[in-house]
């Protein structure tokens, strides 16, 4: 099938590449000419495992191309995806200006029937706005062209996006007309193998499904962080509690890891946006507010533990920080817990030596040159002249350090483990002090 995708961000690029990989003919459109030129020359703007070779291979055989020419891209697609960003507005609701700008462009240039599909995470009711916008533009030029607007939310995880896209656990199609449903089923048929993964529903339910999924996952995390904070106070170990509850299939093993708080471009923004939507409909979503405030407090928890050990004044202290990305296998630092921690350390007079396997360039862009930050090129280099180690992101390579060597390197011989990677007994046996999340025993 012929597919057009607006937006070569994370969602658009991964989706477009995977659709091309199973044989569809995909054109990706972006207004950023430099990005388009880069992509046509094999420069991938994001770090995502497995993506680069797939982009290059599909581009080379002509199934995947990139352009800033919207009219020709609109002429190409039987299915036209909108996968542009929906950044949070000042009040926390999702800002639809990019989505609606694409809808206007589609309305201005559509010449034949098409299915327009919202893939961006958008508030319930947005498909209606997109439909009205396209219809308005068509009417303005007296064009009588049939089109449908469907919702098809994405459930990709950064760092595992190609896999999620190629082997989805579900494909949610929000559409009412049989023509749109049929087209999308045909488009996704190569991913719908072995058992039925496609769930067809009305548009508003599909839009809400996306928010419900992310809000549920964020709730699990905040819940565990809350239990961790209780564990710390009552002298229990949340890691034991986690193991004690995860085997119940109704709870499950996934997403019950306490830590330094959730970050990224999705959970913080989506929890807020859903709360806002519900408020706009006259309902105060109590739980969502609590999920957000627990997370906000949790992002300050590592610093609280540091204060417990060192006191409030950290001038003259240097902290080795392992991990800056909001989670492993990405260079993304949006809403990352590391950002809060570094600011708190600097405000208290400390210096930071940080190492992240992928996010160094991003950290440089965010923080610029400053005297109290050294971005190191290895985990070991970050330890030089440091008083303490703080682990913020659970990259695999941080899982099994030589604790004896750590004790020798760190002037104060103390580890703050923001992701509970280590066993307190093992760390303490090596002569280091240990602080984890919710490990009060
Ligand atoms: C999330 C969802 O997992 C995807 O299903 C969804 O499609 C995506 O948002 C989106 O809306 O686009 P992502 O933001 O890439 O994906 O990251 P996650 O792997 O979900 O991690 C989010 C945060 O939660 C990270 O900061 C991670 O460290 C934290 N986390 C995760 C925990 O603190 N504990 C856990 O048990 C799991």
In short, what is this structure?
The protein has 441 residues and is α/β, with parallel strands linked by helices. Helix 15 links the parallel strand 10 and strand 11.
Please provide a written account of the structure.
Keywords: NAD, Oxidoreductase. This is UDP-glucose 6-dehydrogenase. It catalyses: UDP-alpha-D-glucose + 2 NAD(+) + H2O = UDP-alpha-D-glucuronate + 2 NADH + 3 H(+). InterPro entries: 6-PGluconate_DH-like_C_sf, NAD(P)-bd_dom_sf, UDP-Glc/GDP-Man, UDP-Glc/GDP-Man_DH_C, UDP-Glc/GDP-Man_DH_C_sf, UDP-Glc/GDP-Man_DH_dimer, UDP-Glc/GDP-Man_DH_N, UDPglc_DH_bac. This protein is of the alpha/beta class. The protein is built from 18 helices and 14 strands. The protein has helices spanning 10-21, 33-40, 51-60, 70-76, 97-109, 126-140, 161-166, 178-188, 203-234, 238-246, 267-280, 286-298, 301-310, 337-347, 360-367, 379-383, 403-409, 424-429; strands spanning 2-6, 25-29, 64-67, 79-82, 114-118, 147-151, 171-174, 198-201, 318-322, 351-355, 373-375, 388-391, 414-417, 433-435. The chain is elongated, with a radius of gyration of 24 Å. It folds into two domains: 2-201, Rossmann fold (3-Layer(aba) Sandwich), CATH 3.40.50.720; 202-441, 3-Layer(aba) Sandwich (Rossmann fold), CATH 3.40.50. Residues 121, 154-158, 214, 217, 221, 255-257, 259, 262-264, 266-267, 326-327 line the site of uridine-5'-diphosphate-glucuronic acid.
């Amino acid at each position: 099938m012929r597919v057009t995708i607006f937006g070569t961000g994370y969602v658009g690029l991964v989706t477009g590449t995977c659709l091309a990989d199973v044989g569809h003919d995909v054109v990706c459109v972006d207004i950023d000419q430099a990005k388009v030129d880069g992509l046509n020359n094999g420069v991938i703007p994001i770090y995502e495992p497995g993506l680069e070779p797939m982009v290059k291979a599909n581009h080379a055989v002509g199934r995947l191309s990139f352009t800033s020419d919207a009219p020709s891209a609109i002429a190409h697609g039987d299915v036209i995806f909108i996968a542009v960003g929906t950044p949070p507005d000042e009040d926390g609701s999702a800002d639809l200006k990019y989505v609606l700008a694409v809808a206007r462009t589609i309305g201005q240039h559509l010449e034949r029937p098409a299915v327009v599909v919202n893939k961006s995470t958008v508030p319930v009711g947005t498909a209606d706005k997109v439909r009205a916008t396209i219809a308005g533009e068509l009417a303005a030029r007296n064009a009588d062209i049939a089109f449908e607007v469907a919702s098809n939310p994405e459930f990709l995880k950064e760092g595992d996006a190609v896999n999620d896209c190629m082997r989805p656990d579900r494909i949610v199609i929000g559409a009412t007309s049989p023509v749109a449903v049929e087209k999308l089923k045909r488009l996704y048929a190569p991913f719908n193998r072995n058992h039925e993964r496609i769930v067809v529903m009305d548009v508003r339910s599909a839009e809400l499904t996306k928010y419900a999924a992310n809000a549920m996952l964020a709730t699990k995390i905040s819940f565990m962080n809350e239990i961790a904070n209780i564990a710390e106070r009552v002298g229990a170990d949340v890691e034991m509690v986690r193991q004690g509850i995860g085997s119940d299939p109704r709870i499950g093993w996934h997403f019950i890891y306490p830590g330094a708080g959730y970050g990224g471009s999705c959970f913080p923004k989506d929890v807020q946006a859903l709360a806002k939507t519900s408020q706009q409909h006259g309902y105060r979503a109590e739980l969502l507010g609590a999920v957000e405030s627990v997370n906000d407090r949790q992002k300050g928890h590592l610093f609280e533990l540091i204060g417990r050990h060192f006191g409030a004044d950290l001038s003259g202290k240097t902290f080795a920080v392992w991990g800056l990305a909001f989670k492993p296998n990405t260079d993304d630092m949006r809403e990352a817990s590391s950002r809060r921690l570094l600011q708190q350390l600097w405000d208290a007079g400390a210096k930071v030596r940080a190492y992240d396997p992928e996010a160094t360039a991003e950290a440089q862009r965010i923080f610029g040159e400053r005297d109290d930050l050294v971005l190191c090129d290895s985990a070991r280099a970050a330890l030089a002249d440091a008083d303490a180690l703080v682990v913020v992101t659970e990259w695999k390579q941080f899982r099994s350090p030589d604790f004896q060597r750590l004790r020798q390197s760190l002037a104060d011989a103390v580890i703050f483990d923001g992701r509970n990677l280590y066993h307190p007994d093992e760390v303490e046996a090596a002569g280091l002090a240990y602080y984890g999340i919710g490990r009060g025993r």
